[in-house]
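Morning!

This is the sequence you dropped in the shared folder:
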Amino acid sequence: MTRARIFLPAMMLMTSCICAMAQQSDLFSHKRINLYGMKAMPHSTGNDHRDSIARNRIWRAEQPRLYEYLPGQEERQGAAVIVIPGGGYIKQAYETAGVSMAKWLNTFGVTAFVLLHRLPNQPDVTDPTIAPLADAQRAVKWVRAHAADYGIDPHKIGVMGCSAGAHVAACASTVSEDHSDCGDSLDTVSHRPDFAVLISPVAYMRNTGATWRTREPSVQRLLARFPLDSLIDRHTPPMLLLHAADDRTASPTGSVEIFKALLGAGVKRSSLHIFPHGGHGIALRSQPGSTALWPQIAEEWLRETGFAGK
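The structure's back. Tokens below.
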């Protein structure tokens, strides 16, 4: 075999390896924070299993956890956001709807944590309607309990999510009952976030039903258990809602109904933006027309409301 014939396959193999490495997320190189001890995890059978991960998506989480993303020491604004990636409640797209959002938050001084929570279809989950919410509540409590370690104001801790992740964030903001208690010191820490950013949220409304259709029975039950318009009250934190009018997956009427409920409950400082285009799951990059302005709108809203800024 000639050198040329040997060289070409070797170069092709090297190129494919480099491309594969480039596609890998840096999520797992960041500090991992497990939210529970394996034997103290609520709503769990206690059965051990491994993560199921493919193409920067996690389909099953062995342990609910956070990954920290820190801004520069001098740029820190004293605020934190827990980013909850979406994926239809069957997976979490942690790169496009998690890591990218965390890095963007870091650019204007906000400390970010990416949450990987349990999913309703996991065999170790005893109550599929509760586990994702419980993990989000636990995440808020953990960040609040460790706020001083990160230079965070414990009253400036928010949640942010896209699609199903936005639903988890909305539930964490509206459900008064704490489902994350597990018999340790965090049981006494408040589980409510101080603000929420909801992007293309899926929702279930008492009067109008679900804004998103799913064939998964466990997800249907989860959505129906938490009718957001009836859960919102004067204790609900301010919310920023971002949605595209041409979203064919999760109707923008859900965001409209959430905003109406916020107004009706007297929740001040909330804001709603429905863009003409963008489809479902508005991302950070390559958005059409005015939809491309949403990161600037979100940053300015965080500053205007006093959450991003000392």
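Headline: The CA atoms of residues 90 and 241 lie 23 Å apart.

More detail when I'm at my desk.
O.
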